[in-house]
Each structure stands twice: as structure tokens, then as C-alpha cells.
Amino acid sequence: MAARIVRGDPIWYVLAWVVLLTGLFAQRVLATGFTVQGILAVVIVAFTLFLYLMMGWQRGVTFLRQWVLAGPGRVFVIPVSLWVLSLVYAKLSGFLTDEVGILGLALALIPVEIARRETRPMQSKDLIWGWLALLIPLMNPPFGHRIPLALDVGLRVGAFLLPALYIWLAREQWQHVRLLLAFSYLWYSVEWATPDVGFPMFSLFHLYALALAVYILILVGKSSEVGLGILLRRQDFGPVLRNFMLFLPIALGIGLVTHFLHPHWPTVSGVDMLLRGVLIFFFTGLPEEILFRGVIFRSFIDYIGEPRWALALSSLIFGSAHLNNPPMVGVYFVLASIAGWFYGDTYLRTGRIASAALLHALVDWVWDLFL
């Protein structure tokens, strides 16, 4: 099944979401007064959100790719701009360190450099250097002790070995391997190598990773192929509702029996409940579905040829990505793997990232508020 993006997505729709999300951010940040640091934070969020949500504007996607490919060095203009903004903000907030500069530059340049080689004939050095580059985020010392050291080390080793599976499945065709390595770098950086720069509400480098993920797919011409977009069609809601109703009793059964889930009634207002759903969709649902369904699952379909086997394998990888959530990591792995199956089935039926992200956000929203 070929995944397609809806053509002609209007720019006003993208701008409306950028204005809304930036406005919510500005309300929180500037509530206590206008400062240079606060204003810069709002500008950074608006700029980065526009790059991230540009996936909903097909003509903008086409224009950006044509502009980038029109001149040497243009491919790095946006990544370097993001890095410079991070340095300025870190300086203003008093968090500027060598680690911030080095890891920020690596996040901006390395995945883009790996991915842009996707359109060229495969060379052994692409694979070697792309794989070894993953050591940069994986070798970074932990910022805290959220999980036991043994589990942390095990996850890092497993993450480094994961590209071996990509290479084996590709069977020397090398299709998508460099793209998978580029997204692995973004993924591992978010997990292990995004230093704090004092940015309000969330990690600045996490936000950058979202924009860079979309930028990379645009750069290599894969945005239409993976069904990148934020608009939903009427026919997309059927598979979302179907898979939600199928997954919910399974999750409740496993979660209640194992005492992983603890039902409760939310104490927040209706507006806050709605806001949480929006934020989960844009900052959890969309980015995770771009990675696990749009890139990994999509690549596995090309490698294996049988969508259901590709779905099963990619769902297990999705489940494994949640092993860093103690204390009941085993139950979390099982539930996340099953959820990954239903998210992937939704993507397979609709061919669109947004529909899988909506189901993902709906599940996380119910869990966050009621379980």
C-alpha cells in the first residue's frame, strides 16, 4: 500500500496551529513580564514549530526542497541557524557550556549529513561513519539516574546494535539504511544527549529534533511517501476509532491484572483536558509516529515485502523503546508493543502519519487523565 500525502494543504492551516501553540507557550513564559530571554524563547518556538508543522503545507515542502537543493551548502542553513539560536539562548540563560555547544552542533549537522547521502549511490564509508556517529549520543554520560545503571547500559548497547538489523533486512540493497541511521541519531540524542539550556516548559533540543526530523524527510524527498501531514480526512477517523476500541479492552485487561494501571477521575478542567490532548498529539503522537511508522515500519515493508511481518517487527522495536520507563518495564514493553501494532495498522489502512498519531494521542490522553 502506497502512503500518500494530501496535495495542496493550505498554509493558513499550518499558521493557525503555529500561532495557537506559540500563543499558549508565550502566555506561560511571558506571564511574569517581558524579558529578552523570554521574547527570544517565543521567537525560537514560533520558528521551530513552523518548520515542524510545515509538513502540512505541500507547496511549502516543495519550495523548501527546491531551494535547499539549488545551491551548495544550503542544506545546512536551517540546522546551523537552530544551533546558533540555541547558543544565544544558552548564553542568556547562563547554561552555555562546551557540552551544549558540541552536542547541539552534532544534533544539527550529523543526522542531516547522514540523511542527505540517501539520494547518492551507497558507499561503505556512509555506513561506517553513520553507524559510528551513533556513539556520540550513546556514549554521553547520563544526566540523571532515572533508570538503573545496568538497564541504561543495556539499552545503549541494544540501541547501538539495532542498525545491524536494518542492514541485515536490507540484504545489501542499502535502501533507507542511511535514513534509518539519521533518524536513529535523532532518537538517541533525545534519549541520551540533549543537555539543559534552561528553556521553559520543555527541552529546546527535543523541539529541534522534531523540526529536523521533518526537515530530513523533506530533504530526501520522502515526505509524500511516508504520508507526512497534519490534516485528517473523513475516512481516516474510522480506522482510528476501530483500533482504539480494539486496543482499549486489551490494555485495560493487562493493565488492571498486573496493577500497572490505576483508574481515577481527572481533577483538571475541561479546557486543560483538551489542551493536554492537543499537546500530546503534536509533541508525542506525531514525532513518535514519524519515527516508528513513517520511517522504521515503512522501511521494513520495503525490506520484508509482507506488511504484517514488518508491522510485528517494528511494533517490537517500538515496545523496546519504552524499556526506559520503570518500574514495570516488562508490562510497559508488552503494552507498548501491542499499541504499536494498532498504531501501525491504522497507518497501513490510511497511509497517513496523522491518523496513527491521532490514535496514539487518544490512547496517551486516556492513560494520562483516567488511568
Provide the descriptors you would attach to this structure in a database record.
71% helix, mainly alpha, 371 residues, 2 domains, disordered N terminus
Quick summary of this structure?
With 371 residues, the chain is mostly helical. It has helices spanning 11-29, 36-53, 58-69, 77-93, 98-116, 124-133, 135-138, 149-170, 177-192, 204-219, 237-257, 270-304, 307-320, 329-350, 353-370.
Number of domains: 2
Cα radius of gyration in angstroms: 20 Å
Q: Helix share of residues?
A: over 70%
Beta strands, count: 0
Number of helices: 15
Largest sheet: none
State the oligomer: single chain
Percentage of residues in strands: under 5%
* Straight-line N-to-C gap: 35 Å
Order of helices and strands: HHHHHHHHHHHHHHH
Q: What structural category characterises the helix and strand content?
A: mainly alpha
Estimate the mean pLDDT confidence.
Answer: 91
Shape label:
globular
**Uncertain parts:** 1-7
Descriptive account of the structure:
With 371 residues, the chain is mainly alpha-helical. It folds into two domains: 1-228, no CATH class; 232-371, no CATH class. The protein has helices spanning 11-29, 36-53, 58-69, 77-93, 98-116, 124-133, 135-138, 149-170, 177-192, 204-219, 237-257, 270-304, 307-320, 329-350, 353-370.
